[in-house]
Amino acid sequence: AFFACGGSLGMGKKSRRTRQKHLQAESYRPDPDVLRLADELFKRTSSHPSSGSAKDEWDEFVAIRKLVDQIVEKQNLRPAAFQAEEAASESSSSSSRASRFPAFREWLSANGVDVERIDFAEFPDVGYGVKAVSDIQQHEIFLVIPEKLMITTLTANESELGPLIKSDRLLQGMPNIALALHLLCEQCNPDSFWRPYIDVLPKTYATPLYYTIDEMKLLEGSPSLNEAMNQSKSVARQYSYLLQLFHNHPDAKGCCLSQLPFTYEDYRWAASSVMTRQNKFPFNDDDFILALIPGWDMCNHCDGKISTDFSPTEHCCKCYAMKDFPAGSQVVMFYGPRATSEFLVHCGFVYEENSYNRLKMKLGVSKSDHLFAMKAELLARLTLPESAVFYISCGSNPFAPEMFAFLRIFCMTQDELLERLQGERARDLVESLRNPENIVSDENERKFYSFMQTRCSLLLRQYKSTIEEDTELLSRGELSVCATLAVRLRRQDKQILIKTIEFASSRLESLKQQSCV
User: Nearest 5°: phi and psi at 102?
Assistant: First the structure.
């Protein structure tokens, strides 16, 4: 599922159809300078900063982005992904995205989809989505999409990309990349069966792949910054590899992407389209395939319950209403219990009322700790590593059971460890560590909450602004779409950290009062 982002890339003046014929006639060859830069990009994205420090990782991101920008500058032709689109719109009086939804709706209807109760419309703050034409009651099926309309990894294998997918290990091991290339091939085909669907896809997204360096810097302090930089690095590496693949691999010769300019902007668009919309559905009982599901993927997110089912016998995706939707209202669905950072990085939106939001926190027992061996053994009995990523949540209790257990062991004395490693009640005591109410000792609890109070305070200081400053900045309405999302996300991060500090402080105060009784 996805969030539809507004906006589109500008159209070139030269006809796509004319340019495509010209390129085919001249037997297109990539610019040698682009190939050289792509080779440099592949080497750069295949290495890691020696120190692993935040500064080195940022410097690496900037260097990669500058290489990408050089490639984009060299690729001064309009992205091939939009050639077919421009050719198709030559005789049209309007090429706006909105004008293409009626044809998309007709295509769905012609292929057996009942769209009488829904339509597609633009909504404030969220972009395009699904609108109820008539009242839809909770639990009613409002949309059924047959498998034949889906763009999947199976249709990719059956397409012109099939021979290349079968022979290339990357495409075999990363079906999302194969799906992105399949979508790109269909975009280049004016006569694609999926043309009405492709025509209503956003032409640009608000995922971090589209952030400027300054917009990315707004995430400084947030764990999301690292995720966003890793995403950018990964996609840049994929592109540099694929460019060489289409240039050199014999099984790529029959693919349109080897005959037209395969630009970074092409691939960024296709990767973002798949990233924001891909879903798994069951195949052959115990396996899954990736799919883009036309129409269904127009539903925006809202907290609730999963209300979609795939019928293997009827070979279709069924969407049930998770609540009542009056006529004229937006029909939404629940994408799953994801953190806001996941929505931002992979879907390109920030949901403010996210009751499942959580913040990453790395914790580990130092090997220089003289009790390291005992703590590691006790953690192993709970199948917990001595170093791991945990999450603090936005709920009333920010700590998950596993985090309670880890931090209690982290703060244990030698006697407390021995009692749980060798004592008669060792097994019971170990199992109780996950329970928030079963404390090890008052002193252990004090260490635990004092540690978290200090840790969250330090993390909060890594941000360059306060919640109040973020709110004031957002109120001006002067930020770009991507900058707005970044500021909204970092504000949510700080809200979790402050709430966790307050929770730890209240527990410490309770312990203090109990000790005075």
Answer: -60, -40
